[in-house]
Amino acid sequence: MSAKRNLLIGVGVGAVLGILFAPRKGSKTRRKIAKRGADLKDGWNNLKDSVNSTLAKSSDAMDDYLDEGETAINYNSSMQNEWKD
User: Which of 1, 28, 30, 78 could make an S-S bridge to 24, C-beta 3.0–4.6 Å?
Assistant: First the structure.
C-alpha cells in the first residue's frame, strides 16, 4: 500500500512541477488545461449518452422478447387446453 501511495504522490508532484516549469506562459497553459478539461467533459457526456441509449435499446428489446415469450406461452397453453378438451 505504501508503494502505491508513494507512486501517486510522485506522479502528482511531477505533474505540478511539469506545469510550473513548462516552456509556455501560464495563461497559455491554463487555457490548454481548460480546453482539455472541456474536451474530457464533452467526451464523458457523449459516453454517458451512448451508454444510456444502449441501455434503453436493450431494455426495449428485452421487453419485446418477454412479450413474445408471454404470447408464445399463452398460445401453447391454449393449444394444450384445446387438445385436452
Answer: 28
